[in-house]
Design goal:
It is built from 17 helices and 18 strands. The strands form 5 sheets. It has an 8-stranded mixed beta sheet. Strands 1-6-5-4 form a 4-stranded antiparallel beta sheet, with helices on one face. Strands 2-3 form a two-stranded antiparallel ribbon. The C terminus is likely disordered. One of its GO terms (molecular function) is ATP binding.
Length: about 500
């Protein structure tokens, strides 16, 4: 009899131990478990907290993005009934989970259950009212800590552009991963200049107490000036990667007025790089919507103090066409000149693109450079990329392009581009017809327009493509050109080098 009783109790124990585990792996068990949770929660009062994506000024809510990162990291994210999975265009192996609207996402913290729901770009946090004082503050801190650790490990630079079609709902910026391969070291400028820029950026990152002690906003402004195709956009990409900052590319043509420009700045984040390309071209346009005063306030007005740890970068083709008020110290801290390619820069490009430091054709190339002929680094680089299988053919093509440009400069009646403030090789430069658009698109790919003619390549010169950016003059006689050459050659001898780097008000 005793044995029968023991067997009965043993069977009951096994039943209560095995049945829940078997049911938990079936749809019936999942249904019963969810219903039990629902009934249990009905006996409690709850507190709800909303976390919208944007505030009333359409500024991004950083807590919202931290919640997204945190929920994606939880193992229970895969237990939801229905989820959306996305892969990044630049990294197909990286899978991201996106929660559907009105879907309940459970979490457990300090023994208490909380629930997340996404409702039209607004997260709703639900917890028991009696537990909110015990866990609310510490739970949100936990969410932010985990999210920051995840983002720090896999920091991904993003490119933001002001092209959002529904700004009232999604804000003014849309983003995409920024995967540009350029670095400061790959820039076709002097090594000393690269080191100076790196040192200045590193000093800026540590200078918050110093700036605040001076009563200044913790930001830095750069002016990059020089013709199209000289590497300004690639240098911006290198600076962004060096700082690990997101890039906000401001398309001035899509800004409606001064107030709209201020709103754009308000919706940027700290630790970001704000870029305005071709500022001189925009300021020369007759139908511009943003005034000079609006641009000045954007650069260093009260509105610029609404966020810190920012680097602002402005590019121009000819700084002589820019109002002096824009370039004064305080608005622009550093100026970096990107000139046409000289022989020294040519050797660096040949080394990086073709892997050669010396070649029998180098003396011939140097001789042509000494006559005043030149191309942009983008033009020379494109020739070398297209002929990378044969360094000799690449150099011969460069020589042909230099000779073609030199001949057009000396004999053509087309207008010649000339920056009277900074001349590197002694001659005014012919205009280039480049595909670089003047927006952040140049950070992706901006090859020069070169025409193939048999086995050689010649440079297409378009004298009509000035867009009011450069000062132009016509030279009709060889005598006038010779006189100008002597004058500019004397001026160039007084300069320190081919790359002009000016530091104004260097801080930190």
């Amino acid at each position: 009899m005793i044995l029968i009783i023991l067997l009965f109790f043993l069977s009951l124990v096994l039943t209560f131990w095995l049945v829940p585990r078997v049911l938990s792996r079936t749809s019936i068990g999942h249904f019963l478990h969810s219903r039990w949770r629902f009934i249990e929660e009905c006996f409690h009062t709850h507190q709800f907290y909303k976390i919208p994506k944007f505030n009333q000024h359409m500024q991004q809510n950083q807590l919202f993005h931290r919640v997204v990162t945190y929920l994606n990291s939880l193992p229970s994210a895969g237990d939801l009934n229905s989820v959306n999975l996305f892969s990044c265009n630049n990294n197909p192996n990286e899978i991201t989970l996106v929660i559907n609207n009105d879907q309940v996402f459970p979490d457990v913290f300090l023994g208490s259950r909380v629930y997340w729901t996404l409702d039209n770009d607004c997260f709703v946090l639900k917890m028991r009212r009696k537990e909110k004082r015990r866990i609310l503050s510490s739970y949100l801190q936990h969410v932010c800590k985990i999210a920051d650790e995840i983002e720090q490990k896999g920091k991904e630079i993003k490119l933001y552009i002001n092209a959002e079609n529904e700004p009232e709902r999604n804000g003014r910026w849309i983003s995409t991963p920024f995967k540009h391969p350029a670095t400061i070291d790959t820039a076709m400028i002097e090594t000393d200049l690269k080191n100076k820029v790196k040192a200045d950026l590193e000093s800026f990152l540590k200078a918050k107490p110093y700036y605040h002690r001076l009563g200044r906003v913790w930001k830095r402004s750069y002016l990059l000036y020089g013709p199209s195709g000289t590497g300004k956009s690639s240098f911006i990409a290198g600076m962004a990667k060096f700082l690990c900052y997101d890039v906000y590319d401001v398309d001035m043509s899509k800004v409606t007025d001064d107030a709209d420009l201020k709103l754009l700045l308000l919706q940027t984040t700290c630790k970001s790089m704000i870029v305005v390309e071709d500022l001189d071209r925009y300021m020369l346009e007759k139908s511009k919507s943003v005034s000079l005063s609006g641009i000045l306030n954007f650069m260093d007005g009260i509105i610029s103090s609404c966020g810190e740890e920012r680097v602002m970068i402005f590019t121009v083709s000819n700084k002589e066409q820019v109002d002096p008020a824009v370039l004064r110290p305080g608005r622009i801290d550093f100026r970096i000149h990107f000139p046409f390619c000289d022989f020294s820069a040519f050797k660096n490009i040949a080394n990086s693109h073709l892997g050669i430091k010396e070649h029998k054709l180098f003396p011939q190339v140097e001789e042509i450079f000494q006559t005043g002929a030149s191309l942009t680094p983008a033009e020379i680089g494109e020739i070398m990329v297209s002929n990378r299988g044969s360094p000799t053919r690449a150099l011969k093509t460069v020589i042909n392009a230099l000779n073609t440009h030199s001949g057009k400069t000396g004999t053509s009646h087309k207008a010649i581009t000339h920056d009277p403030g900074h001349v590197s090789s002694g001659l005014p430069r012919g205009p280039r017809n480049l595909s670089q658009s003047g927006s952040i698109d140049g950070l992706v790919d901006a090859p020069s327009k070169l025409m193939h003619n048999g086995s050689s390549r010649s440079v297409e010169v378009d004298a009509s493509d000035h867009s009011g950016t450069f000062c132009t003059e016509n030279f009709h006689t060889g005598k006038e050109l010779k006189n100008l050459y002597g004058l500019l050659k004397n001026r160039s001898r007084r300069r320190d080098g081919s790359v002009d780097f000016e530091g104004e008000g260097k801080v930190g």
